[in-house]
Amino acid sequence: MFLKRVEMQGFKSFADKVVINFEHSVTGVVGPNGCGKSNITDAIRWVLGEQSVKSLRGTTMTDVIFAGSADRKMVGMAEVTLVFDNTKRSLNSELDEIEVTRRLYRNGQDAEYLINRNNVRLKDVVDLILDSGLGKDSLSMISQGNISSFAEAKPQDRRAIFEEAAGVSKYKKRKMESLAKLERTKENIDRTQDILSELERQVSPLKRAAKKAELYKEKKTRLEEIEIAVLVEDINTINQQIEDAKKTLFNIESQTTMFQTTIQVHETQNLESKKEVNDLEKEINKLQENLMKVVNEIQILETRKIELDEKRKYVVEVGTSEEKAKQLQSLLEEARVEYEDRKSRYDQCQINIELLSEQLSQVAMQYAEFSQKNNEENGMLRRLQNRKEFLDNLLKDPFNSQGGVKSVVDNAASLHGVLGVIAQIMQPTEGYEEAISVALGGTMYNIVTSDEEAARNAINFLKKNQSGRATFLPLTVLQPRNISRENQIVCENTKGYLGVASDFVQCENRFIPVKEAFLQNVLVTDTLENGNNLASLLKYNYKIVTLDGDVIHKGGSMTGGKSKNSTSLLTVKKEVDEINQSIELQIAACELAEKNVQETQRKREELERGLMESRIGSAQLEPVVDAKRAKYEKLKNDYELIRPNGDDGLGDANFADEVVLKLNEAYSGRDEITNSIRSKREYRMKMSQDVDRKEQQIRQIRKDLETASASQNAIRIDQARLETKLENNLQRLATEYQLTYEFAKTKVNDSHIENAKEEVLQLRSEIERLGNINMNAPQEFEEVNERYEFLDKQVKDLISSRDKILSAIDEMDHVMKKQFKEMFDAINNELNDTFRALFGGGKAKLVLEDPSDILNTGVDIDVQPPGKSVQNIRLFSGGEKSLIAICVLFSILKVRPVPLCIFDEVEAALDQGNVERFARYLKNFREDTQFIVVTHRPGTMQQCEVLYGVTMQKQGVSQMLRVELKDAIDMADGQEEVKS
Ligand SMILES: Nc1ncnc2c1ncn2[C@@H]1O[C@H](COP(=O)(O)OP(=O)(O)OP(=O)(O)O)[C@@H](O)[C@H]1O
After folding, report:
1. Is it the case that residue 745 has pLDDT exceeding 90?
2. How far apart are CA 4 and CA 23, in angstroms?
3. Atom 16 in ligand 1: residue holding the nearest Cα
4. How remote is the CA of residue 33 from the centroid of ligand 1, in Å?
5. Mean pLDDT confidence for 513-538
6. ipTM topping 0.90
7. How many angstroms is it from 46 CA to the middle of ligand 1?
8. Predicted local confidence at residue 980, as pLDDT
9. CA 288 from chain center: how many Å?
10. Residues 6+ apart with CB under 8 A from 328
11. In 505-551, which residue ranges form alpha helices assigned H by DSSP?
12. Best exposed site among 515, 566, 643, 937 by fewest CB in 10 Å?
């Protein structure tokens, strides 16, 4: 037998273990109402996986567990086992015997299925019986209710049994599943497409933004390359400039040493010269003493000579003619010598007068010039001293013209948080005073406060005291203003650019925000021309100042020029320094001018003295010469009278009187001393001039030394500035680009530097044109695009799976139509014979309500019992309806036999004759089908090969026992008479 055994324990009314062995093809189960017959059917249905509590006639699943009775306690577990013979492989297993068990515990949770005592899932049980004909809608379990509902059912509801028979229901189930899946797939497609279109909206702008960001990065990288190249180039230049500065410093140092040596040499020489002048002075004095002696000697000799002359005159008057002539000749010769000597000295005096006059007039002119120069220099010195006094006052009282500022500064000690005036806080680098002064402009009088409250307090103070107005800068509100990196590159590549103004200002750390707010975006150039060039490259976006204090304002307007004696608080210190220096120089200039005047005066006096001496000498000599000439001519006449033809004897005359000779000697000695004095004086003058010249040279060299030292300082400052700049550039290479100078050098090539300025401008304007950049865009785009592509693929997959489902549904529809139609036709073929057999004639047929819609059409039954006209099943009596339904059931069994069929009082509504016909007909199927028939009808019982009686001997607990026909009939409530 297919179902070999049923074992039950604790299932519904079967409290105790009951084992039913099936050994016959047709087994009858009999018993009185409520004894538990149908519970056996329920047990079989339950094991085969029934999940519907309603089908099991309960409200919860635990209702199947024996609930107890008057004298039995409830049990905790229900267990039913079915044992099948599977040698015909009706079940989906290769085993010959299969034991299926289901257990349920009262806690309702520990439900179990077992196949051959192994725990399995419900699905395994369902798979086991799939297509075996034991399904819950199959014909394997037919109750009286099924029979009547089949007959009463609408044609539409009736097709289920044909579908089951045709094996269509599994396709139908699959189709339902596929449709549900299709629905889910469509929903997924819709949902995914919604997300997709949302993503699509994001993807395009993100793609554009990402492209923009990439472009930006590219250009930025190029800018960086250029910047690195410019930095490297800058470093090269700075290194070169530092080298040059060192060389220049070395040259200046050598020059300084040379200057110092020259000064030393000059000073030593001057010392010697001065000593020499001193010696000359002494010599001259000595000579003058000698001169006096000679002059005295001359006077004595002259007196003696006069005496001698008198003696000679006497000889001439009283002597012989010979003596006379001789004497006269001697006198004549003497007079000639005297005359010529005096004449020559007189002439010399005249020459000296002329020479000295000329020299004197030159010196006088020089003296006038030097005096004028001296006056000028002194005037200049006075002007400088006046200016210095003014500047000193300004330094002492810098805010005299700014009432409010002065008042706040004077009272700073009592005002909380007043930190100082910008002009005092900022220290411009030497040489940059004018530039910083104009860069700050009026801001230099602004007062820095710690915060806004301090500023408010100070303003209230000014109001209260009505002591003026002032502008305040609270440190807490200051924002740094910079020039962009790209513009910086442009600047650094522009000729004459020196830096931003803040580079040239020192201040305490706490005031750095002030510097950054006002000077970090002001550019400094050396000249106005270079400033204009830079301004145009930067499109007039920045304020530019020059070292001279000219300003190119934002927008391009320019301010410049110079007003007399103008000064600002930032330049005043520089001017004071400069003026102190100028005063020092001016004092030296005055001293020099004074010295020149004095020197010239001394020279003039000396010349005047010489001239005077010469004039006196000349005046003294003039009458002497006349007298000597007259004397000489008279003696000549006298002698010619004595010797009219002349006498050669004259030559022999001994007129060389000793006195005369001495006198002549004395005169020539006097002249010699005078000449020596003159020449020594001249030499002394030359020496003094030489000393003066050298002193002047020393002063000039000292001036040059000062200039050299100033330029040394300037070069050192410049060198320090270059070294700071170099340090900054190296630092920037390291921090911004993580590069050493040596490595960066290997990275750059000429192409980076070529046209750097133009390219930077070009790149900068291109970057500007790019507008706002979302640097996260590439990543966001990648993420969104990845999601987009993923979802797009998913949609495609979903569409393809939807198409597959649709085609599977189509295929299933096709199979279902085919199988349904074939099964329907086959059953229809059998129905007529079955009908005739059970009704004893007539005819019957199945009719499709809508043959064009095989998948949904209802099934009607047209029957014509013998002697009756064709009628629809609904018009027949209850018994007839049952029998017609049974005809259909048997027709189906003929076409589609099932291994097990349980009939639960299906023939209840039939009359006895029909019951017997039914029971006999049933036996036709016992070859292929095992029947378990629950019945009250003796007619049926008679046809069963074995009968089991169900009893409830103990109240509420069912029991089974094999019974004989007679007992069975007795047990069946005696409702039917047994036909003997
Ligand atoms: N969980 C349960 N515990 C104890 N008894 C139960 C349980 N469930 C059902 N029963 C009993 O089973 C009996 C019904 O059994 P069943 O319907 O099989 O009777 P039957 O023999 O088919 O009757 P009829 O001939 O009237 O159809 C009832 O008496 C009911 O009290």
Report:
1. no
2. 7
3. 36
4. 8
5. 94
6. yes
7. 15
8. 33
9. 97
10. 316, 635, 638, 639, 642
11. 512-518, 528-537
12. 566
